[in-house]
């Protein structure tokens, strides 16, 4: 991860977090990690809107709506897709990843991807604030970097 420790208070417009309730024991920690990182980098709490959706599958629809609102400087997606007994896991993750990438390529603002895809709950917990870091935090930092880069490229 980038060593930049400054702030991004020059960011114009609020930030949206779209997060799934499915596997909430994991995703609530991803949101906390994201919120903490945004605060550390100088983003006001009032400039961060959190949208909870039922599962990762609903992230695409909601992100599209938020893009159409033209209200946000950037959007991050957070979720936890954990392998079960069937191929449901693969269907969800392939389609959500594809949908987010498609939107990202066409959007005027950046979207970052913080949806964990793990073999089991233990791996997901480790990546949501335990030994393997917090994917919410790194996704938030990536979003700030991309918003700044986007501003630079648009000048
Ligand atoms: N299995 C997981 C899901 N499944 C639920 C779907 O995302 C969706 O909400 C449902 O099919 C209704 O449309 N969601 C996750 O976020 N994580 C999973 O592991
Ligand atoms: C909606 C489904 O197909 C669901 O039963 C998935 O089961 P699993 O997570 O065990 O693959």
From TrEMBL:
CDD domains: Lumazine_synthase-I
Superkingdom, taxonomy of origin: Bacteria
EC identifiers of the protein: 2.5.1.78
Gene Ontology cellular-component terms listed: cytosol; riboflavin synthase complex
Pathway connected to this protein: Cofactor biosynthesis; riboflavin biosynthesis; riboflavin from 2-hydroxy-3-oxobutyl phosphate and 5-amino-6-(D-ribitylamino)uracil: step 1/2
A biological-process GO annotation: riboflavin biosynthetic process
Keyword field contains Transferase: yes
Example of a GO MF term: ligase activity
Active site: 88 (proton donor)
Pfam families reported for this sequence: DMRL_synthase (PF00885)
Keywords noted in UniProt: Ligase, Riboflavin biosynthesis, Transferase
Top-level EC class as recorded in UniProt: transferase
Cited Gene3D superfamilies: Lumazine/riboflavin synthase
Binding locations of (2S)-2-hydroxy-3-oxobutyl phosphate: 85-86, 127
Catalytic activity: (2S)-2-hydroxy-3-oxobutyl phosphate + 5-amino-6-(D-ribitylamino)uracil = 6,7-dimethyl-8-(1-D-ribityl)lumazine + phosphate + 2 H2O + H(+)
Record-listed 5-amino-6-(D-ribitylamino)uracil binding positions: 22, 56-58, 80-82, 113
Family of this protein: Belongs to the DMRL synthase family.
Entries under NCBIfam families matching the protein: lumazine-synth
Biological role: Catalyzes the formation of 6,7-dimethyl-8-ribityllumazine by condensation of 5-amino-6-(D-ribitylamino)uracil with 3,4-dihydroxy-2-butanone 4-phosphate. This is the penultimate step in the biosynthesis of riboflavin.
This protein's name: 6,7-dimethyl-8-ribityllumazine synthase
Organism: Lactobacillus ultunensis DSM 16047
Chain's gene name: ribH
